[in-house]
């Protein structure tokens, strides 16, 4: 398993990050033997990071990782990142909410600290619904100040965000110099964080967000590389919730069909092709992959062995991106 420098953290992160979330679901729902086997397969292949959150299975992901990682020797335990999602109805005491969330996470994880804590809320200019406004993020007694306090007391080594919401506002947060890492949405169906796309792009345009991360030496984890499973299978599991604006499942299915048809099946399975697409982007440091079964672990690990998509394959996708898939959907 190759490793990449994880931005200003200076850590060397494995190209595959095991995602312990709801969409894949193995860490949350599988039997104990399967969970142990999946973790062992990843560790033996060189995976050195696991990403979780309190919302994944309402704490079940963190609880499972608590005992799973507790069974390992210190030397083989991977890095762990978790998150804090603030309730927009409880923003009168952000430091207290962050502290309480982390205390609960650490109890479930059965550890005294984590390597990285990330703000999980989407970020907008002003607060509404499930988003946080930039003042709640960067302002006095805001979320980042609260996460920095966790870092100063040794509860975490690094502070990050999930880079969703209004892309211009997210870029302002990244440019503040206070963010070590970002989880960035990037995949075969929406590569706008990494490259120019058609004018009037129909789904959310992340407008070169990866370059902003690179400029400020922010470590990048790639989220939704499989587009919630749409790029991996035509079977729907009911956990394909869209997390980007102007995006719906039917449209994602049409785009996935066009992208995979364009590449012609020459680069592995759909999931492997999607992972290899992300690996071809050097500004991504770790690709978060969620799995549902052991066969998916094997499939993903093979993709990382195969390496980035070749330049010719990337060139074949160009027409899709400059026309917003119009000629091929």
How would you describe what is shown here?
The model has no long low-confidence stretch (mean pLDDT 96). By secondary structure, the chain is of the alpha/beta class. It has an eight-stranded parallel β-barrel, surrounded by five helices. A two-stranded antiparallel ribbon has the order 1-2. It has a two-stranded parallel ribbon with strand order 7-8. Helix 8 (209-215) links the parallel strand 10 (181-185) and strand 11 (219-223). Helix content is 38%, strand content 16%. The protein has 13 helices and twelve strands. The two termini are 35 Å apart.
Average pLDDT = 96
Q: Quick one: biggest sheet? A: 8 strands, parallel, barrel
DSSP summary: helix tally:
13
How do the helices and strands follow one another from N- to C-terminus? EEEHHEHEHEEEHHEHEHEHHEHHH
Assembly context of the chains: single chain
Overall geometry:
globular
Distance between the termini: 35 Å
What can be said about this structure in brief?
With about 325 residues, this protein is α/β, with parallel strands linked by helices.
Question: How would you describe this structure in keywords?
Answer:
single chain, alpha/beta, eight-stranded parallel β-barrel, two-stranded antiparallel ribbon, globular
Topology:
Blueprint: E1 3-5, E2 12-14, E3 16-19, H1 26-29, H2 32-45, E4 49-51, H3 60-70, E5 79-84, H4 94-109, E6 114-119, E7 123-124, E8 132-133, H5 134-138, H6 143-152, E9 156-162, H7 167-175, E10 181-185, H8 209-215, E11 219-223, H9 249-263, H10 270-279, E12 286-290, H11 294-306, H12 311-316, H13 318-322
Parallel strand pairs: 3-4, 3-12, 4-5, 5-6, 6-9, 7-8, 9-10, 10-11, 11-12
Antiparallel strand pairs: 1-2
